[in-house]
Amino acid sequence: MKTGTSERVQKHRAALRASGLRPVQIWVPDTRRAGFAEECRRQSLALQGDAHEREMADWLEAAADREGWQ
């Protein structure tokens, strides 16, 4: 027998699927993990002065739509 919560979840997911959506699972790095900040810093420093990184940063700046952001 399903609980009220699982029935609601199933109904919600069915409605999402009916609207043309599908579930996707995405795994991302755990920002709470020991060493995460240090690895971010290491990678950032490795890109310092890189021409391709500068080109990408410039492109992102030009393409960014920040209208309405504070």
Q: Could you explain how this protein is built, in words?
A:
It is built from three helices and no strands. With 70 residues, the protein is mainly α. The chain has a domain at 30-64. The termini are far apart. The relative contact order is 0.05.
List the SSEs and their pairings.
Elements (H helix, E strand, L loop, with lengths): L3 H15 L17 H12 L3 H13 L7
Percent of residues in β-strands? under 5%
Alpha plus pi helix count: 3
Structural Rg: 21 Å
What about the largest sheet? none
Residue windows where pLDDT falls under 50 for at least 5 positions: none
How do the helices and strands follow one another from N- to C-terminus?
HHH
Shape: elongated
**First-last Cα distance:** 49 Å
* Counted beta strands: 0
Return the structural class.
mainly alpha
Query: What is the averaged pLDDT score?
Result: 93
Determine the fraction of residues in helical runs and give it as a percent range: 55-70%
Descriptive key words:
elongated, 3 helices, 70 residues
Short description:
By secondary structure, the protein is an all-alpha fold. The chain has helices spanning 4-18, 36-47, 51-63.
